[in-house]
Structure formats: C-alpha cells, structure tokens
Amino acid sequence: MLKTLIDAFALITTWEVIIAMFAASVYGLVIGSLPGLSATMATALLVPVTFYLSPIAAIATIVAASTMAIFSGDIPGALLRIPGTPASAAYADEAYAMTRKGEAELALGAGVWFSAVGGIAGTLSLMVLAPPLAEIALSFSTFEYFWLALLGLMCATLVARSSPVKAIAGMFLGLLVSCVGIENPGGVPRFTFGMTDLFGGIEPIPALVGVFAVAQVMRAMLTPEPPPIPKRKFGSIMAGQWLLTKKYHWQMTRGNIIGIIIGVLPGAGADMAAWVSYAMSKRFSKEPEKFGTGHVEGLVEAGASNNASIASGWVPSLLFGIPGDTIAAIAIGVLYMKGLNPGPTLFTEKASSMYAIYLMFIIANILMIPLGIIMIRLASYVLRAPRSSIMPIIMLCCAVGSFAIGNNMFGVVTVATFGIIGYVMEENGYPVAAMVLGIVMGTMIEQSFVTSLIKSDGSILPFVERPIAAILAAMAIGALAWPLLVWVWRKIRGVAPAAASAR
Amino acid sequence: MRLPDRVTGLFLVGLGAAAAYGGWQLPPVPGQPVGPNVFPLVIGTGLALCGLAIAFGIGHSFEEEEELIPVEGGQPKPAPPGRLYGLRALLPPALLLFYVAVADRLGFIITAGLIVFVTSTALGARWKLSLPLAVLAPIGVHLIFSKLLRVPLPAGLLPMPW
C-alpha cells in the first residue's frame, strides 16, 4: 500500500506530467469559461494531444481539464447570466442575481471553493468505492458483464430531462452506430455498404468530437454573439467562504453525495447533478422563497454536486468500461489507447497508476483554488475574445485532431457527419449523451451476450443461475418494469377520479 | 432546424426498419446461436418502435414541458431573417468535407487558412480580424501538431520550412 503510494508519487512527479497538468488546467479554465464551449468538448479536443504523451500524463490532462472546466463555467454564469458549460446552467440565474445585488465575489468564491470541496469528495468516493468493487468484479464473467451493460444502457433514460422515449431512441441510434464494421463476434461486415473505411467500424472518439465540438460551432452560426463582460474590480474572493461552509455544511454534504451518485450512474454527468442538486436544495431549504433572488444556498449545493460527479464518473469507467458521463466516455477511449484497458484487474496489476489518478484528481482540485481565483480576476479579458476568432481555431483542431487519431481522412468525414447528427438531435430534443452511451457500450453488450451464449452452449440458464448475475438480472428487470408499473398505477389512479366525477 | 416530432419519429421508423431489414439479410454464423444478424434486428425494431411512439406522441405525458435554458445567449433569439439563414449551420461540416477533398492537393496551410477565413467571416468578423487569423492560426496549429506531435499533415503547395 505505502509502496504503491510512493510509486504513484514517482509516476506523477515527472516534468511531463507536471507541465501537462498545468497546461491542461489553464486550457480547461479558458474553454470552460467561454460560453458554448463545454467541458466535454474541451476533453474531446485534447484527445489527439494525449496520443503523444505517456499514459499518466495523458490521463492527467483529461483529469485537470475536465475538473477546471466544470468550475470555470460558473464564471460567465455569474457575470453574464450565460453558463459557460451546461453544468452551470442550473444556477446561472441565481448567481447572476447575486452579482446584481453586488455579491459577485461571494457567488464566484462559492463556485471555486465548493467546486474544490466537491471534487475532493468525488475523489474520495472513487478511492473508497472502486477497490472493493474491483474485488467483487474480479469474479465477474461475461454473464455479469452483459447484465451490467444492459443496466448501463437503461440509464440512458436518466439523461433525458424531457422525453424518455427520445432518450431511448438516441440510445438505439448509438447502438446502431456501434454495429457498423466487422468488429462483431461473427466477424461479418455489417452496414459497411462496401466501403473499406467502414470495415473497422466507427471510432467513438471522432464521433464524440463531432457531436460535442462541430455541433457547437454549427450552433454558434445561428446564435447571436454573447455580450462583452463589463469590467469590474473584485474584492476578496475567498472571504466568507468558511462561514458559508459552516452554515451550509449539510447542504454541501448532500450536494456531494447526490453528485457522487449521479456521477456513478452511466451517462448522467455534471449537468444532471447540478440540476438535481439545485432542485433538491430548493425543495429542502428553510427559506425557499429566497431562491431566484440571489441566494447562495443553491449555489453551494449544486456547485458541490457537479464537481463531485466528475471523479465518481470514473468509477464505472475504470472498473467496467461503462462511461459514468460523457467526459468519462472520452477517458475510456484514451485508457484503451494507452494500454490501461478498463477492468477490475487495473486495480491489482496497475495499482500505482490508479493511485496516481486519485492523486491527480486531488491535486487538480487543490490547484483549482489559486488558478480559479486568477481566472476570475482575468475573466473580463479572456471573455473579451470574440467568438469569431475562437470557433475557427476549434474547426482546425477538429479537422487535424480527427485526422491524427487514425492518420486517415475518414476520421474527418466521421467528425463532420456526427456534427450534423449531433446538431439535429440536440435541436429536436434527443439527448446526445444517450447516443454516446450506446456508441461506447454497443460492442460490449453484444460481445458479452454472444460469448456467454457460446460458453453456455445456447442455454440462457447461466444468465440467472450465477448468484451475482441473478441479482443484476433482477435489478435490470426491475428497472425495466418500474416505469411501466408507475404508468399503469397512474392510469388506474387517473381514471378512478375521472369516473367518480362523471358520476 | 426544429422539426416536428412526427417528422423525426417517422425518420426513425424508416431507419429502424432499414436496419432491421439489413440485419435480417446477414448470414448466420455456424456455431453461434445468436449470430451477427440478431443485434441489428433487435436494435432496428427498437428504434422503429421508439420512432412510432414519438411520431404519435405516446409517452408524451411523461414529458414535462421544461423551460429550455439556452446554453448561450441570455436574450431571446432575434427572428431569423429568411429561410436560407438556417442553412448557415451546415457551413462547419461542409468546410470539414472541403478539407477532406482538397487538403492533399492544396496542402494544410492553404486549406486551413481558407477554413479559418470563411468560419470567422461567417461569425461576423471584419477582414481586419479574419485575415490575420487565417494566416496565423494555420501556422500555429501546424507548429503544434506537425512539429511537436508529428502528425503527418499534407504539405501540398506551401510546405512549411520546419
């Protein structure tokens, strides 16, 4: 244990890792603070760069950039009422109301401080949850993996804030994308239409870059430029945060826990965590009437929540290769490329690398406090950069980055195609995160199902015979039946009063 | 580009049916009780069912009409001037396809410069900003990706000295 920790320290105290982490932090802060550029997009555009780094440095950039970007989205939210990332959208109104009351420092300070606390809480959950789960998961066979993947896919309905049917449709679309190519258990070319480029299947990373980056540039083409930020002098940013921590410690803890749970659930990430926590905070507040008028309570809870979800999103990703959120979906791609294939054995064979990930998360969250304060003070300059100078550079990064992933032009075509798909889906209320879940997990669910059937000689009995598989199966079937039961229950209850009133 | 649910739903029905048909056509693999044809069949059927549900508004009752908080732009959008305005959104993917088509011939620097210039102008930049950007951004990106990260970018007509 101690030796592993020392090894982990040795892994992250190389110049490469330190520089990569610092640069990625600054990059994440800038991208996150620019309205319309999300944390997922920041991570997706980093992938081609990670190719050329050592595994630990590659993970360091993702950890640092995503952590910073989620906090940084609070800055324009508070100053302009425009969330920098979707994860800050839940409380942008509240934070802006505080700025108008002259409490910008308190709002932004709460953003930095409770983000850092949330991030560290999320990391602790990763450290506490992952190793024992890995212990259990070591005995998992393809049967258990099939049920796990199925449960993960069902979480697609969670990412929908509007229509669950559209979320499921999005998930099926993603699964369909994962069918393309000859990478199936039978080795039969599927949906390749004779194009050799499609034989290898559609790479998840260019698809993600298209969905999150190109679609965003497309959206920018039709939306007006956000107004420039008014210049202002900030007082002390951290003043009063300790008082808030003491006053709202229960809200903070609840935010952390909600964030961790939502992070662990496949597909749902920081934005969902912020929405749920903000609503929760309002629901259980002693003074709910103050919400919306510039009350810091919701900010504390939601800010603690969205950053907590980032680290805990890595739990299913590292253990099973099931993405905890869209950022983790990209991280999984990078882990595979770097030979750190997700699975429970990572925690025994590459234990020092895992400790290095924990350490990097903690360092990133501590580093966030000073860097975040600098960023807040510089925000009026950074946010002055016109969109017309940033979007073209993002276009170039999309083109070059997607080419670099496989050194072929087909990657660029994939990026362009998925840009259109992502744009049309978002515009029409189909959650893109559900499709991402389908793309990443399609191969896994098919592989585990088919290999299981081959092992069991076509019998489906082992799917429910093995004890853990049986538990997972019960959970999956329960999750499937639950909304139906609720629906039937509502129908009966809904009909009864109607009939009564008719009488 | 907001389409009625009926349109997107029926499109999904078509896509799902096509996928299911395509899967059904695939040959089974001997020794595999569930061959490569089964998953497309299941997925296609599921997709088509979802499409039907969306097109006919089944499960719509689950939907809480939420206030869509715009990710960017706090103000309500001004009315789009004309029908062709919406097509501007297709510019980024079109430019990427343009890159695929000509990058090998023209080389990275020239193609990238054109892409930067067009994108920047479309977003409302004056030539005073977009022209220098079109010169400097490709060189900067080339420096990072080609020199530092060794991505083999096409040299074309204007090879860089490094």
Please provide a written account of the structure.
The complex is a heterodimer of chains A (503) and B (162). By secondary structure, chain A is mainly alpha-helical. Chain A has one domain (2-226, 236-455). In chain A, 74% of the residues lie in helices and 0% in strands. Chain A is built from 23 helices and no strands. In chain A, helix 3 (39-50) packs across helix 19 (387-406) and helix 13 (270-284) packs antiparallel against helix 14. Residues 498-503 of chain A have low confidence and may be disordered. Chain B has 2 domains: 5-61; 86-148, no CATH class. Helix content of chain B is 57%, strand content 0%. Chain B has helices at 5-25, 38-55, 91-106, 108-122, 127-148. With 162 residues, chain B is an all-alpha fold. In chain B, helix 1 (5-25) runs antiparallel to helix 2 (38-55), helix 3 runs antiparallel to helix 4 and helix 4 packs antiparallel against helix 5 (127-148). At the A-B interface, helix 9, helix 10, helix 19, helix 20 and helix 21 of A face helix 1, helix 2, helix 3, helix 4 and helix 5 of B.
Estimated helix fraction of chain B: 55-70%
- Outline of chain A, from the CA principal axes? globular
H/E series of chain A: HHHHHHHHHHHHHHHHHHHHHHH
Span between termini of chain A: 73 Å
**Uncertain segments of chain B of ≥5 residues (pLDDT<50)?**
61-79
Which percent bin holds the helix content of chain A? Answer: over 70%
Give the total of beta strands of chain A: 0
Write the element-wise H/E pattern of chain B from the N-terminal end onward: HHHHH
CA-based gyration radius of chain A:
23 Å
Structure classification of chain A: mainly alpha
Low-confidence blocks of residues of chain A:
498-503
Describe the largest sheet of chain A.
none
Average pLDDT of chain B, to the nearest integer? 80
Classification by helices and strands of chain B:
mainly alpha
Number of helices of chain A: 23
DSSP strand tally of chain B = 0
> Number of folding domains of chain B?
2
